[in-house]
Amino acid sequence: MRSYSRIKEDGFKENWLDTVTRVVEGTFQLHELHCQENNLKIEEAWRQKVSQEMFEAIYKMKFLPPGRGLWAMGTPLIS
User: Fold this and answer.
1) How many domains does the chain have?
2) Is the dihedral of CA 2, 6, 27, 49 positive or negative?
3) Confidence band for 2, pLDDT divided at 50, 70 and 90
4) Residues 57, 70, 31, CA angle at the centre, nearest 5°?
5) CA nearest 76: which of 6, 18, 12?
6) How much is the pTM?
7) Is the pLDDT of residue 3 over 90?
8) Is residue 5 part of a domain?
9) Closest CA to 20 of 59, 61, 71
10) How far apart, in whole angstroms, are the C-alpha atoms of residue 30 and residue 24?
11) In this predicted model, what pLDDT tens digit does every residue of 4-58 receive, in sequence order?
12) In whole angstroms, how far apart are CA 29 and each of 2, 3, 33?
């Protein structure tokens, strides 16, 4: 919470669940943008499977993006 949690719209700081959700959603928003810009098909079943696996791995700290990624992903800083 000290380093990677951001202030939410309601004025409260994110908890770990909020942070992981923001990071995973932000990652897949970038994936969607990449696919649109390059006229690539988005496989929704694959996207759901991989995003759930990514969420679980980050939430359980089996895999963590770089600290800056935890802090910035899913915000207007990354678009």
Assistant:
1) 1
2) positive
3) confident
4) 75
5) 6
6) 0.90
7) no
8) no
9) 59
10) 10
11) 999 999 999 999 999 999 999 999 999 999 999 999 999 999 999 999 999 999 9
12) 25, 23, 6
As a whole number of angstroms, the distance between CA 32 and CA 47 comes to: 10
Q: How far apart are CA 49 and CA 67, in angstroms?
A: 24
φ/ψ bin of 61: left (φ > 0), alpha (ψ from -120 to 50), beta (otherwise): left
Query: Which residue type sits at 34?
Result: H
- Domain membership of residue 7 (yes or no) is no
Distance CA 35, CA 4 (A): 28
Q: Is the separation of the CB atoms in 58 and 23 below 8 Å?
A: yes
Q: Is there a domain that residue 4 lies in?
A: no
Residues 42 and 34 sit within 8 Å (Cβ to Cβ): no
